[in-house]
Amino acid sequence: xxxxxxxxxxxxxxxxxxxxxxxxxxxxxxxFASEKLVxxxxxxxxxxVCNVATLPGIQRYAYCMPDGHWGYGFPIGGVAAMxxxxxxxxxxxxxxxxxxxxxxxxxNLSAAEVVPRLHHLVDRLFAxxxxxxxxxxxxxxxxxxxxxxxxxxxxxxxxHGYATPEDLEMTEEGGxxxxxxxxxxxxxxxxxxxxxxxTLGSGNHYCEIxxxxxxxxxxxxxxxxxxxxxxxxxxxxxxxxxxxxxxxQVATDYLKLFLGVMERKYGIKIxxxxxxxxxxxSPEGQSYFSAMKCAVNMAFANRQVILHRIREVFSEVFNKSxxxxxxxxxxxxxxxxxxxxxxxxxxxxxxxxxxRKGATRAFGPGAKGIxxxxxKTGQPxxxxxxxxxxxxxxxxxxxxxxxxxxxxxxxxxxMSRHEARKLFRGxxxxxxxxxxxIYVRSDSFGGLAEEAGAAYKDIDEVxxxxxxxxxxxxxxxxxxxxxxxx
Amino acid sequence: MSYQFRGDIAYxxxxxxxxxxxxxxxxxxxxxxxxxxxVEDPATVRPTEEVQVxxxxxxxxxxxxxxxxxxxxxxxxxxxxxxxxxxxIGGDDGGACQLQGTLTGEEIDPGRHQLxxxxxxxxxxxxxxxxxxxxxxxxxxxxV
Lengths: 486, 144
Fold this sequence. Notes:
Chain B: GO terms for molecular function: metal ion binding. Chain A is an alpha+beta fold and 486 residues long.
């Protein structure tokens, strides 16, 4: 038990630490969790979410989602909305992997059709989607062309034959944050990223083949609206990756810049260097916001070209076109971003800068900014579990307003990567998973061990908690059968 | 010089302590730890490529931060696994700090290098460089 004595239960799945818990807190901290999840949370979560509550301009509460765990600066699962006029922007509230996110893609294939060719399919995906340390992408670009990718995101992909108009419609913000100016990005970031378009990465980044079993559909109406009921035991593809070295360098560059100006130029004192920040409307804050948008757009484009490659592989293996296989996107959600959105605080609707780090935007039915197709259902929310245990598709709810329409992003870790390596062996895990019908290819057995299911929280508990808290509603559980990771 | 990975700091990242009799040894140990995260057996990285590095920062911590970031930069930009061959670090008396040196290594070759986990960035979390009874110690958390 790491829970502070001051932690007070407000509702079944809402816990609060008061402003008196830590000097300098401007708002209380709120944690969404079941009793089991809050007991499992590490002490770092409580300290970090309260550090976030000290940031200038923060509104209502500093939040942590049910999959929250110890990060750097913000906890993973941390959410904070700032008044853009008086508040700050902090790279530590977004993360190094800017717009690390999830994409879910449909097929009209059943598990019975895919399982006989599963090894070949996974092997082909592993061969054609670059994974692992330092891999270069399959889209070869000059640096000037990469700057266009950074400014245009998925729109660049549409122009160059890697996307359909519907793909963009089914991507958060249409696959492009407007106002991205590549002159705000360092030469180093460009050099680090221009050859990585079309790469998965490593760590918890993966591409997974999953099955929608009829008994795992919790909301048949929404499941149908999201395209999950074409055939019984329908196969879908979920993948998770981000802005690669480009985004990591943007975050590193501005973390250092903010450390230099935060106190000297703006008189801002913070509790943790990882929360380095600058006033949103300062030249440094605006420059970072623009550079961050470039990284967001690169990540959207990265997932888009990977989708193009996945479609090619499925076409080759099943000898049908992507259209014949109905390989349409359900949605693409971003995890690590800051966005200007309109929300209601104390009865007044105003523009806020919402930081989400390891958290998913979850707009409810009727919300502006989601595809017309989902107006009645709410935005699809894609929650990746561990590669052993399964994932979920959920939908945003109108009742999520208190947390600025935000929900969890994954299972959340329960142990460090170092501990996981001591407890699990990648080669044994790969063998055991294959016995259970999950075929995994990876560049690294060590990396595989770090991603063992037991290193993560109970995904069922996490998503149920988001539903009880009114943040997102369960639509279907997705069971893995194949996975590639770096 | 030596390094030791830690499981008690940050769940989704990788933390390590490094030590050395001199600052040069300390920085070399931290570089070796970073390499070890990315390649299972760092001994398989041969010195076939050479890169010069020259850095100046206000503190030893920021110097270590920038030095490790250089290794991560070259890993992505030029697909190079690098380690220091020679280093010279000055200004450990509280003033400006400088580092000059030569990094050697080779292009990433999945056929010869058993790849492990990609390093995204050096974080500021718990980052410290401190004088110990004998030599120097550092703590680093890498985002992976």
